[in-house]
Amino acid sequence: MGEITNVTEYQAIAKQKLPKMIYDYYASGAEDEWTLKENREAFSRILFRPRILIDVSKIDMSTTVLGFKISMPIMIAPSAMQKMAHPEGEYATARAASAAGTIMTLSSWATSSVEEVASTGPGIRFFQLYVYKDRNVVEQLVRRAERAGFKAIALTVDTPRLGRREADIKNRFVLPPYLNLKNFEGLDLGKMDKSNDSGLASYVAGQIDRTLSWKDVKWLQSITSLPILVKGVITAEDARLAVHSGAAGIIVSNHGARQLDYVPATISALEEVVTAAAGRIPVYLDGGVRRGTDVFKALALGAAGVFVSIHLTLS
Questions:
Q1: Alpha-carbon span 164 to 159, nearest angstrom
Q2: In a 10 Å sphere around its CB, with 0-12 CB exposed, 13-18 middle and 19+ buried, how is residue 47 labelled?
Q3: Helix axes 266-277, 236-244, angle to 10 degrees
Q4: Angle at 81 between CA 224 and CA 203, to 5 degrees
Q5: Cα(171)–Cα(203) distance, integer angstroms
Q6: Which residues are tagged catalytic?
Q7: What pLDDT does residue 304 have?
Q8: Low-confidence ranges of the chain (pLDDT < 50)
Q9: Is 218 one of the annotated binding-site residues?
Q10: H helices within the chain, ranges in order?
Q11: Where does the FMN hydroxy acid dehydrogenase domain lie (predicted)?
């Protein structure tokens, strides 16, 4: 494999090693993939004005997120179906996050359940939630995350329907038959049927609640005492509504450019959201982060931390 010197180099290796359908699922964006490219390019247009002759002999990168002390302002974003990439999948991610002293966010659509991830040992973990049409399923899932020791809910709000991911349509993407969505295994919702489209798009159309609105943030607060992060905010208007709804924090996210194409890069939307939040709740960012310099740019523009993802393009 040779020496890997930066995160971007993993993408070429993944393309070599993974089956095309799986690589394309991880690597592609919606439609023209303009936002996918822009998530990266926007970072490259931000330049530093470095100051000199400052004592930097003692550096402390630790920070606090929702009251939890972590080693650095870099956390793990939710990535679905990680066992498609490696048999250890979410187990390995959970162990790595714990060893690094940071937070892992587990996807609703993980190939390991909340209980299985909790069994890997201690660690601070958040749970990413999609709201299903059947609210009993949602309640059950939230209760299980609570019992498994998860510390917060990251509510994804930008997916009333799945973005048009053309690579997945061409590949007729479906979860490999030896895997399932483990959090839904006992509910007969763990399998994805083959379709003439993307199997995931058909699954989302059948299961995810398109009526989701701000009142549902209140509903979620009524069924759990866990803090709720609203994931998928890219405008000042929605940032103010998130504050008003009682969210514990905002994640500026465009779903790794996999939902609506031609929205701004998250780093371009960050300042607007931070200004609107006005220090009332913390603002985090995901999307396009590949280097320490990207993390620094996000922090300099007001983010309280970033989420990075094992999906090659998600963060």
A1: 11
A2: exposed
A3: 50
A4: 75
A5: 16
A6: 255
A7: 98
A8: 312-315
A9: no
A10: 9-17, 20-27, 34-44, 89-100, 114-118, 135-147, 166-171, 199-207, 215-223, 236-244, 266-277, 292-300
A11: 1-315
Buried b (16+ CB within 10 A) or exposed e, 155-168: bbbbbeebbbbbbb
Task: Choose among 27, 11, 308: nearest CA to 173.
Answer: 27
Contact 4, 16 (CB under 8 A): no
Question: Which pLDDT belongs to residue 197?
Answer: 77
Q: Give the containing element (helix H, strand E) for 92.
A: helix 89-100
End-to-end CA distance of the chain: 23
Three-class DSSP category at 64: strand
Determine phi and psi for 105, rounding to 5 degrees: -105, 120
Reported as type and span, the H/E element at residue 228 is strand 228-233
94 is in an annotated binding site: no
* Residue 20, both tokens: 């095309």
Residue 288 assigned ligand-binding role:
yes
Q: Is the dihedral of CA 142, 143, 144, 148 positive or negative?
A: positive
